[in-house]
Amino acid sequence: MSEEQFKAHEALVKELNDPTLRAEYARAYDNYKPGIVARVLGYILVGSGTLVYGKKPSYAKFKAIEVIARIPYQSWEVATYTLLTALYSNEERAIELTKTSQFSREAQDNETMHVVVLAQICKRLKCNGLFRHTLIPLVFALFYFWTIYILYMLSRRAALELNYLFENHAYHQYSQFLKDNGERLRDTPVYSDFLVYYGRNPRSEYELFESIRNDELVHRNRSIRELQAKKA
Predict the structure, then answer these.
(1) Which of 66, 79, 217, 51 is nearest to 159 (CA)?
(2) Domain locations in the chain?
(3) What is the CATH number of domain 3-231?
(4) In a structure prediction context, what are the per-residue pLDDT tens digits for the chain, which is 232 residues long?
(5) What is the 3 state secondary structure string of the chain?
């Protein structure tokens, strides 16, 4: 992510702390209806997570979510370069693929920050079980990577819509976590060298999770804007 792109993203994330602005930003895609393929896969994806980690948001559940959340962006980038190898002579298609690849790289950096910081919090709180919170997400991530890769190759729309559904789920989970634990989170400081390296400096866990919630909303909306840009 370039410095200019980083600054633009961080400025938007801060703006979305305002409830009115956030509601307005979210409203544009709150009622978006993905196609049947994305809905079925999204139901399986979210349902599997709920089965393993429960409905209630938690630190450990968020760590698993963030391990998986990075995967579509990594998979898209590989898929776009695969397609560009065959479609480089189609300039319009090459531009479309390159824009998605750029979005993928930006989102990967952001989601990597989420999972590294959450892993440190889980380590401190001793909610970092080897099987349930490490091996299961990693195995699922491997399967998910190739599923998304194939899906993107067959239907870019379905791949982006599936990401919309997953990021929408993450957004609402973080929103609920902030609502349920706001007072405690405001009184809990957060320490992370990776956060400093990334360039984000929250003063408390509340500010951290507030910013992550906003990140997920931005990713959710942009997934659909990528599709709409194709139509423009």
Answers:
(1) 79
(2) 3-231
(3) 1.20.1260.140
(4) 678 889 999 999 999 999 999 999 999 999 999 999 999 999 999 999 899 889 999 999 999 889 988 999 999 999 988 888 877 777 887 888 788 888 888 999 999 999 999 999 999 998 867 777 778 888 888 889 999 999 999 999 999 999 999 999 999 999 999 999 999 999 999 999 999 999 999 999 999 999 999 999 999 999 999 888 755 4
(5) CCHHHHHHHHHHHHHCCCHHHHHHHHHHHHCCCCCHHHHHHHHHHHHHHHHHHCCCCCHHHHHHHHHHHCHHHHHHHHHHHHHHHHHCCCHHHHHHHHHHHHHHHHHHHHHHHHHHHHHHHHHHHCCCCHHHHHHHHHHHHHHHHHHHHHHHHHCHHHHHHHHHHHHHHHHHHHHHHHHHHHHHHHCCCCCCHHHHHHCCCCCCHHHHHHHHHHHHHHHHHHHHHHHHHHHC
Q: Please report the pLDDT score of residue 41 as a whole number.
A: 94
Q: How many CB atoms lie within 10 A of CB 183?
A: 9
Nearest CA to 190 out of 144, 140, 138, 122 is that of 122
- Written as six digits, the tokens of 191 are 């320490």
Positive/negative CA dihedral, 119, 218, 213, 41? negative
Contact by Cβ (8 Å): 183, 199? no
The model carries a pTM of 0.92
Q: How far apart are the first and last CA of the chain?
A: 25
